[in-house]
């Protein structure tokens, strides 16, 4: 259907200029729906390569998880397993995203 092209256009344009490891989530609903607009913002932040924006999104997902689940995630791969993300964003070289259980936040740590 033609509507699918319009809904996927923003993500497709962003993905075309991104490296293969860039985050590209599926579009949720019509392009102008609140869910699609929010997802577009999430997509831009995760695909930006900006670690602070990526941390913000991952931390927001962690808070959403904690509000909706009875147990905290074991690690960030749980977001992928729960289909909250297609894949984790690429961290800066020599770093990885991790959950700091004491702080209850997503942080960047050295590998």
Q: What does this protein look like?
A:
It is a single chain. The protein is mainly α and 111 residues long. It has 2 domains: 1-48, no CATH class; 50-111, no CATH class. It is 47% helix and 11% strand. The chain has helices spanning 2-16, 34-47, 51-68, 77-81; strands spanning 95-100, 105-110. A two-stranded antiparallel sheet has the order 1-2. Strand 1 and strand 2 (105-110) form a beta hairpin. It is globular, with a radius of gyration of 15 Å. The relative contact order is 0.14.
Quote the distance from N terminus to C terminus.
Answer: 45 Å
Strand proportion: 5-15%
Low-confidence stretches: 1-25
How are the strands of the largest sheet arranged?
1-2
Classify the helix fraction into a percent range.
Answer: 40-55%
Number of helices: 4
Give the biggest sheet: 2 strands, antiparallel
Can you tell me the overall shape?
Answer: globular
Rounded radius of gyration (Å): 15 Å
Average residue pLDDT: 77
E-strand count:
2
H and E string: HHHHEE
The secondary-structure class comes to mainly alpha
Query: What is the count of distinct domains?
Result: 2
Compact summary:
The protein has 111 residues and is mainly alpha-helical. It has helices at residues 2-16, 34-47, 51-68, 77-81, and strands at residues 95-100, 105-110.
Keywords:
111 residues, mainly alpha, 2 domains, two-stranded antiparallel sheet, 4 helices, 11% strand, globular, disordered N terminus
Chain-wise SSE layout:
Layout: H1 2-16, H2 34-47, H3 51-68, H4 77-81, E1 95-100, E2 105-110
Antiparallel strand pairs: 1-2
Helix pairs in contact: 1-2, 2-3
């Amino acid at each position: 259907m033609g509507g699918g092209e319009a809904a996927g256009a923003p993500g497709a344009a962003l993905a075309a200029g991104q490296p293969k490891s860039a985050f590209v989530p599926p579009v949720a609903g019509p392009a102008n729906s609140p869910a699609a607009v929010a997802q577009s913002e999430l997509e831009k932040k995760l695909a930006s390569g900006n670690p602070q924006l990526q941390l913000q999104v991952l931390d927001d997902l962690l808070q959403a998880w904690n509000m909706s689940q009875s147990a905290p995630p074991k690690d960030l791969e749980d977001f992928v397993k729960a289909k909250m993300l297609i894949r984790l964003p690429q961290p800066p070289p020599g770093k990885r995203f991790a959950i700091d259980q004491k702080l209850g936040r997503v942080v960047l740590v050295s590998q």
